[in-house]
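Lab notebook, page 48
Experiment: co-folding of the full assembly
Goal: obtain a model of how the components sit together before planning crosslinking
Operator: M.T.
Materials (sequences as entered):
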Amino acid sequence: ALEIQNVSKTYMMGTEAVHALQSVSLSIEENEYIAIMGPSGSGKSTMMNVLGCLDTPTSGEYYLEGEDVSKMNDDQLAEIRNQKIGFVFQTFNLIPRATVFHNVELPLVYSGTPPAERILMANDAIERVGLTDRATHKPTELSGGQRQRAAIARALVNKPTIILADEPTGNLDSVTGREIMAILDGLHKAGNTIILVTHEQEIAEHAHRIVKLRDGQVESDVRPNRV
Amino acid sequence: ALEIQNVSKTYMMGTEAVHALQSVSLSIEENEYIAIMGPSGSGKSTMMNVLGCLDTPTSGEYYLEGEDVSKMNDDQLAEIRNQKIGFVFQTFNLIPRATVFHNVELPLVYSGTPPAERILMANDAIERVGLTDRATHKPTELSGGQRQRAAIARALVNKPTIILADEPTGNLDSVTGREIMAILDGLHKAGNTIILVTHEQEIAEHAHRIVKLRDGQVESDVRPNRV
Ligand SMILES: Nc1ncnc2c1ncn2[C@@H]1O[C@H](COP(=O)(O)OP(=O)(O)OP(=O)(O)O)[C@@H](O)[C@H]1O
Ligand SMILES: Nc1ncnc2c1ncn2[C@@H]1O[C@H](COP(=O)(O)OP(=O)(O)OP(=O)(O)O)[C@@H](O)[C@H]1O
Ligand SMILES: [Mg+2]
Ligand SMILES: [Mg+2]
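Observation: model returned without errors.
Model output:
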């Protein structure tokens, strides 16, 4: 479903080149459950941004469900980001002056969902991450973990089939982290594709395949034995 | 050294009151090594903000090295935040348009350190967190873990005796996380006071005392047995 071929991402800093990804290839099928791990700065978020159509490679190809992403127009890309893919950012990226509720309903506004339905779906997503009593707060009036959960609710509200979550439990206590992982596990059982970045081994063990990056390259790609 | 007595912090949201801290008391001596844990939203960052003189309680007292913080003037508070306390924020709070180097040297500018010395001290802090080859990048040109490490370098550059670190390893892979904990352990051995918020048990075990919060109150406060 997601096919990255020889993808490189290079940033030019004056005369210095930063090779965030170096000719990486990765093939992900529908309904896979993948954890991406690796040292700080190894290219995980960069790879997630390419997979999520948020960033274009410097070279190489990315085929999303058989289509070459670099050949898509802006409308196609916007629709993919809005409806097909749910993206949880490492730094949340919530709108600071809007409430949790409005942040979560925004993807539904973009997809043209009527107001009555938006309210139901947004409140459902907010309830699933345990933020019902914070729905009228703005991000600055939330704890770090509450912001993270608002970002998760927003990513799931349009019921995307591909979920990209960059450190979704990094700011959560163990109990809340397990609740979020239960949501992701349930989405996987329901047939969706789950790709998450984590640095915690117990979180990675929810996945069926672990891809490790190092210095912008794939160091290993294994399916651990399941009990 | 740090004495919180019956401190409450209440936010008014229209007619609803959010009790972030509810009459909390905590006594921390010099050279203690404390981990604060607890569920998302339980008041950890709020407590850190009070301890770091970044936020004033709604009621109760805070004595920092014997002095009532509420009676201090702005100059005294600025000096405490700049020189006595090093604060690593849960959301980093770096200046987005400035390089890592400038972000890290800023506390030295405020403390009146001469330029030549600033360069040495800032580069030393940057090297200790492994960011030497990212010193000219801006925060938007860094990975999540690199931003976290820049925030740590900035917190340590003025050599404060009290270090408050809110989830300092939340965005770091295990190896880099251990390097940061080695820095904090070393600072503790050197006589400084270390207070960190974490949701990870292995990180908390570096501390000599674990305080758990729940719903804005202290649920437990223990010194685990040391081997
Ligand atoms: N400015 C604010 N206005 C209203 N409520 C707030 C504000 N800041 C924080 N809160 C609330 O106070 C409570 C405590 O927040 P705090 O940030 O201290 O939690 P925390 O323990 O650090 O959580 P986390 O582990 O998620 O970072 C939360 O329920 C939060 O929603
Ligand atoms: N806009 C940019 N300009 C220059 N370099 C960049 C930019 N964005 C990222 N980088 C560099 O690319 C490399 C990969 O970054 P990336 O964010 O993908 O790492 P990561 O694996 O997600 O790290 P972390 O675990 O710390 O979040 C890093 O070394 C980073 O400094
Ligand atoms: Mg990252
Ligand atoms: Mg917090």
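Interpretation: DSSP finds seven helices and ten strands in chain B.
Next step: discuss with group before ordering constructs.
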